[in-house]
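User: Okay, second chain of the day. Same drill as before: sequence in, structure tokens out.
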Amino acid sequence: MWAPWDWLMPYARFVNWYNTGVAFGLFQGKGDWFIFLAILVAVFIVLYYPRVPDQDWSLRLAMSLQLGGALGNMIDRLKQGFVTDFISVGTFPVFNIADSSITIGVIILLLGVYLQERRERRRAQESQEIPPQNSAVE
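Assistant: Same drill. Structure tokens below.
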């Protein structure tokens, strides 16, 4: 265990943790399934990404973060048979940068979907409030 400053030790530290499961230590020993799942996710993202409009930056960013995280953990699993987790914050389960990338990607995806739905609802309400204009001259 290491922390750059002693006062930081109760809050954040670096550790060396071998994880044969997934995030939060769930499903220990089932890493082979997650190699397969990471491959499926990666293939889906690579095939779907070109179809995402350039303007949809939140979806593009979310998918990029998720792809990077999935590939990072998959490489660990293929090379070592486990994922190395090393960031420990408070009592939160130990995680790594790939886990953070996946989590941040999911948060950006959910936020992007929420904001997009809100924009569409607002447009729908505005289009209902504006009466159609009659082009005929009276």
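Residues 14-20+29-127 form one domain.

User: Thanks, on to the next one.
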